Amino acid sequence: MRLSFFGATTLAAMLSINSVSAFADTKEITIWSWNIAAASLKTTLEGFNKLNPDIKVIVEDLGNQQVYDKTLALCAAGGEDLPDIVQFENFEAEMFWNRFPDCFTNLKELGYTSEIQAKFPDFKRVELEVGDVAYAMPWDSGPVAVFYRRDFYEKAGVDPATIKTWDDFIAAGKKVATANPGVVMAQADFNGDSEWFRMISNEQACGFFSGDGQSITINEPGCVSALDKIKQMKDAGILTAGNWNEKLQSSAGGTVASQLYGAWYEGSIRSNIPALSGKWGVYLMPSITSDGVHAANIGGSALAISNGSKNKEAAWTYLNYALGSDEAQISMLKGFGLVPSLLSSVKQPFVEETQPYWGGQKVWSDILATLPKIVPSRGTAFQSDADGIYKAVQTKYFAGGYPDAKAALDDAAQQIAVATGLPIAQ
């Protein structure tokens, strides 16, 4: 039987209404992220949607600087047009809470209880909370390690287990370069980042600011020894300039023997250079002295919910799953090397497994064993000011503009004091 035009129209209308009602309760949330962090979030979606089929999660990889710049501009404009969820690096986060306290939601209002907070280490939460307000939930941490080419070290007769100090690293670097023409020991982003200084100074329990964020400590002995050692490495020719992309290119092209980074760099190497499986290994970062601490943190992120989000409850549901469940955290560790901050996750069986890409080494067991030794390094609301001043001073110091590292960092401390109004620690 053929339907009349009226009947067909009515049926179509009914189907349309049913289709709309079927999707009426579906909520869509968007996340701004970058690089392997964005890729790792995508690994959580299958598990999340099994539990929450009515929430669609869109992960946008904008790049690190783009996320920072756009979030800064939009918060300054009142917070409109921000996505539901934004990724922050811990050390930059306090600047946002300080300047734009109303741009992001207090997660405690959505279900971030003290019991959930206690699942994370204090050093990951200190920069994310102001008084009774929790602006973001901890994600990953960045325990520092040396990622190295086994074949380059072996050809030079260098056993990484013997590299205990940075002087050992310099000596090994010279051997590696001699045995492998065209290969440099390591790279640092001297032009665009303070990464090596922040890693080695953190290892020496020093940083731009004191632990309470109330004074400037960049010119204290631990920081001075860090900058002095970096210059020694640079002058020795074992440490050359390279930004993020150049480091990946050098690692893939076989022109660098080591990369010093947070553990999240494991995923960058493994996912970008699959052909070199088995040729890479990991060892603990050297220290200034043979009996020094071989542990530091760099990077590590958190997720925050914008105040303008129309789906805050759905966004919180995703945060609590992605950052608060072992299932999601281990999926990100397996897929892209994002090191969990969730304390229960580091006790999961996968952490103790050998990793084929890394020559059968138990890399996660080795790296995560350093977490209890890491001294918290405070970013404060003035992180970007201090970082910019430090990078300019570093450039001038490397060019011979200061007699020594102490004079360089005394100048940096004075400039930071003028820019922030904070006192230099005595």
How is this fold's topology laid out?
Blueprint lengths: L4 H19 L3 E7 L1 H8 L2 H7 L3 E7 L2 H13 L8 E5 H10 L14 H4 L4 H4 L3 E2 L2 E2 L2 E2 L1 E2 L2 E6 H6 L10 H14 L6 E3 L6 H9 L17 H16 L2 E3 L2 H10 L4 E5 L2 H8 L7 E5 L16 E5 L6 H11 L3 H11 L2 E2 L22 H6 L14 H16 L6 H16 L6
Parallel strand pairs: 1-2, 1-3, 9-10
Antiparallel strand pairs: 3-13, 4-5, 6-13, 7-14, 8-11, 8-12
Helix pairs in contact: 2-15, 9-11, 10-11, 17-18
Summarize the structure.
With 426 residues, the chain is an alpha/beta fold. 44% of the residues lie in helices and 13% in strands.
Describe the protein in words:
Helix content is 44%, strand content 13%. It is α/β, with parallel strands linked by helices and 426 residues long. The protein folds into 2 domains: 184 residues, Periplasmic binding protein-like II (D-Maltodextrin-Binding Protein, domain 2), CATH 3.40.190; 200 residues, 3-Layer(aba) Sandwich (D-Maltodextrin-Binding Protein, domain 2). It has a 5-stranded mixed sheet. A hairpin with a 2-residue loop joins strand 4 and strand 5. Helix 2 packs across helix 15 and helix 10 packs across helix 11. It is globular.
In terms of DSSP E residues, the strand content is 5-15%
- Rough outline: globular
Q: Stretches where pLDDT falls below 50 for ≥5 residues? A: 1-24
- Report the mean per-residue pLDDT as an integer: 92
Rg over CA atoms: 24 Å
Q: How many DSSP-defined strands?
A: 14
Q: Tally the helices.
A: 18
